[in-house]
What does this fold into?
Amino acid sequence: MVFEPETAVERLRDAWPGLPPDERVRGFFALPRDEQDAFFLGLSPRAQAQILLGLSDDGHRRSCIRILAPDDAADVLQELEPDMRSRLLDLLDEATRHEVKALLAYAEDHAGGLMSPRFARVRPDMNVDEAIRYLQRQARDRLETIYYAYAIDAQQRLVGVCSFRELFAAAPERTVREIMHPEPIAVREDMDQEEIAALFRRYGFLALPVVDASSKMKGIITIDDIVHVVHEEATEDAQKFGGMEALEAPYLQTRLWQLVRKRGGWLALLFLGEMLTATAMARFESEIARAVVLALFVPLIISSGGNSGSQAATIIVRALALSQVRARDWWRVLGRELRTSFTLGAWLGLLGFVRVVLWQKFHWMDYGPHYLRVATTLWISVTGVVTFGSVTGSMLPFLLRRLGFDPATSSAPFVATLVDVTGLVIYFTVAMLMLAGTML
Amino acid sequence: MVFEPETAVERLRDAWPGLPPDERVRGFFALPRDEQDAFFLGLSPRAQAQILLGLSDDGHRRSCIRILAPDDAADVLQELEPDMRSRLLDLLDEATRHEVKALLAYAEDHAGGLMSPRFARVRPDMNVDEAIRYLQRQARDRLETIYYAYAIDAQQRLVGVCSFRELFAAAPERTVREIMHPEPIAVREDMDQEEIAALFRRYGFLALPVVDASSKMKGIITIDDIVHVVHEEATEDAQKFGGMEALEAPYLQTRLWQLVRKRGGWLALLFLGEMLTATAMARFESEIARAVVLALFVPLIISSGGNSGSQAATIIVRALALSQVRARDWWRVLGRELRTSFTLGAWLGLLGFVRVVLWQKFHWMDYGPHYLRVATTLWISVTGVVTFGSVTGSMLPFLLRRLGFDPATSSAPFVATLVDVTGLVIYFTVAMLMLAGTML
It folds into this structure.
């Protein structure tokens, strides 16, 4: 039994993420010849492309690319420059080249770009025994995997589906039409991968058929392709949520200037937005000059708003992504957030109140004769800012989706910036009301 | 062809996330009797448990729970109180009850809690024809899905595996031993679901066998179970990252006091940490009193640090989660982040410099006769704070993992709090150096 194998292959696989391209190619060559194929198959399309580029002769390239299924070959070619692409296409046999070319016409993140054209097909009027023998021939020949057998009519239209298990368990003399499920769920070739992932999650399928506008069957998307999509989308969402553009490659393979560009755009935008805090603070400059103690709590106040806003945004973005919350639920979410965050804010504010009073009593800090008013200002402001932050954080994803953006787009820092400016206005307004006639 | 069906079932499925439990049960009953089974199968274990609780008689309960595979039944029972659990166990037939009880002994997020005991077994010395006929009998009887056939010796130990396609495509007279892969990768029954998901991602398997300490085969985990795990872990990570404890139920089904509890703990901790900003500011109280203009830029400075830190933390947390970066890469990451963030910081700082100079020139704001020194202070501070923020944000996930915590634990707000305090110290130190003898 092998749990954590320690062969040359495993050591290379382990070192892989940290290796620069040329060392990857060298490491691949150093593998025993009979391990190379399996290793190559396990790589990402990007890494497969690096290996193919690194190979010196077309014979070796041919033997590598020929072991790929057409959809995987298309993914690799999409990573390469046009001239290398057509050179590699020429190395494929006629039938596969035809399939790969058809796949290259689709966008990578649409159904057509994810599907494999090698699905298991049967005719609705075969009997079970014939169908199994027909599938057995296809399995020897060209099938990658067998989940479902698709019943296709003479016009290549998808008319039914049965799981392999159903076919296998049925009496041999029944017809496919008798055991198949008519009108199967199918996706159109231009459906986006995120929608497809949602369908897989919703129905628990292992594979979905892909059809064109006239219901002709074009291929299948299998769940293992979708696992990659889910990981990819989770990473993209996390990066967008963290306030940057999604990276196109793994971190260590991304060039530095690309990192600067992907992060710099949003940072600069947030920085410009945050400049409004300087404007807001300037409006209260004379109050700060009269009661410097007010300035001391500025970071505390605005960060509470930012933190509670980022919590709320996180919850709602994930709930929207998993369809646990729909657009029309915004009103219910608002009600829940108002109650939750008012409670949270009141408690946090109380912590702030106690802190000021304690520090004053123990003479660790002197907040002046009106320290109780200062402490109360803090309490009220934190309650207001936390409530405002959560409401903003929970409503912004709905608003972004309504405007046609991805709800994950930069939500956390975006919320923080909005809340910082408003938080300052809330804080100083409360302070002017509480301290008028005493400190102000 | 059905893309977006609009039947009663679909309407219920659509409304489902927003429905309270009793309306769910009512909606389920209102479905045509022959649709109920399929609908029930598509629900989450939590929702299935709600339905079972809502049913009034054991006959109906029996017909619902009997359609579940043993691993799914175990998931449902885990959602229920002990008395309801044993009542439902009694409704199962002898053999299934035995299987379900065995599964209930495992932790939900370990291999044993995810696996199905109904795998396709063959003997290594059968020939292909015998093996296919043996599988055909199992398919009629008890198999859920057929991906791989597992070769089991007389002691129930796993000795090999072949994909169904391989078996199906092989010449009928060869033996299973000839075509099987010996020493298959297997997972131990107590392996954690996150590790299992990583194995699936790494090797691209459709199913993995689960064995006990003596290599006895106990069940299989299939990729569709893992898709749920990936979604679940992504949500948990996002919530932890957003600075809260992970919710146990979908947002709209979580009670308000639970929301308060899950969010309040971290918020309070962060609030207490952020109180250090008040302490830090107090140390510079006299500088603020002499140059109130310094206070105006406090939110701008600390938020730049927080934003760049949250970007860096996001990137590294995801890269660690997908094993694109390993623990030993911290040194390379540090080098990359220093260069990237210094560049970013210098550009953002320049924006700040330009803003002060422009506002002064156009008389929108008066920063005093030493406005160029103020602008330079801003430039240098932003550069330092952004660099410090990115380095902290990128190193903290490594540190958390090293200390045995999940790297995602509250990284973004945690980083922001750390960076806020240090950012203030950097800013006021730069200010004292730049403005000594003029404004201070």
Remarks:
- Chain A touches chain B through 125 residues (CB under 8 Å).
- The domain at 120-232 of chain A is CATH 3.10.580.10 (CBS-domain).
